[in-house]
Amino acid sequence: MTPVVVPAIIADVKKVEVVVAHHQCATLRVGDVFLKIDADQTRTDVEVEAMARAPIPTPEILWRKPPVLALAALPGKALGRLGEPSAASPAAWAAAGAAVRKLHDAPLPPWPGRTAGEIAPGLDRECEWLVANDVLPAGLVTRNRQVAEAALRPWTPVFTHGDLQISHVFADGDQITGVIDWSEASRGDALHDLAILTLGHEGHLADVVAGYGTGVDLDVIRAWWSLRSLMAIRWLVEHGFDPFLPGCEVDVLRSQM
């Protein structure tokens, strides 16, 4: 096997931080460089192409040597994390909404995304699994499946990030400095992006909407909160994450009751 030659830009750094790691991919931080290692290079292809097309700030690509993609760290810090209060200002949240609007107004990427009809069977499978394995009470799952139905309607596709968690949006003061993790970018539902950005942070939804502008159906936002949480729990459990932590996916589902 040919060894990977580490560029001099990170060769002298001694500390390696594991940002996230599971059997599909891993992200390491080495100084001011993030190394994304992905077994599926099609996801990396999408990420690179999406960042090139996005009209909002994204990390600088330093180099790519499959299966590794090296990205420069963004200035500032993430808006927050799921399950923790956000220290970002209302103005920063509004700026995030404005950045998302700019993305959604951009030309569509050439590759498609999933339709409501393609999402629904997977949602039903996850709901059945949650109940059959006694992960969640049947009433909680049934109620959130009903709420989620509002998201499964036809939508006009826009350029979506696809996984716009608050930990993927960086700000310095009240200014957005960039958005990371574009491997799920596609043509999709604009309200899905807004829902993922505000998942578990309902108190900042008004700020985001103020920055985003018109065309926001709050019932559909809430529907996506339920849908995302129902579909994420099995994956999170199987990959060593805890959706039962305060403020995380299970609490989001309970809040919908």
Structural overview:
- It is a single chain.
- With 257 residues, this protein is an alpha+beta fold.
- The chain folds into two domains: 1-73, 2-Layer Sandwich (Phosphorylase Kinase, domain 1); 74-255, Aminoglycoside phosphotransferase (APH), C-terminal lobe (Aminoglycoside 3'-phosphotransferase, Chain: A, domain 2).
- Helix content is 41%, strand content 18%.
- Strand 1 and strand 2 (25-30) form a beta hairpin.
- The model is unreliable at 1-6 (pLDDT under 50).
Number of strands: 10
Poorly predicted runs of 5 or more residues: 1-6
Q: What would the average pLDDT be, to the nearest integer?
A: 94
Rg of Cα set: 18 Å
Query: Number of helix segments?
Result: 9
Helices and strands, in order, run as HEEEHEEEHHHEEEEHHHH
Largest sheet: 5 strands, antiparallel
> What percent of residues adopt helix (DSSP H or I)?
40-55%
**CATH class placement of the largest domain:** Alpha Beta
Our count of domains comes out at 2
CATH topology of the largest domain: Aminoglycoside 3'-phosphotransferase, Chain: A, domain 2
Category by helix and strand content: alpha+beta
Strand content: 15-25%
Shape: globular
Distance separating the two termini: 55 Å
- The CATH superfamily of the largest domain is identified as Aminoglycoside phosphotransferase (APH), C-terminal lobe
CATH architecture assignment of the largest domain = Alpha-Beta Complex
Strand order, main sheet: write it out: 1-2-3-5-4
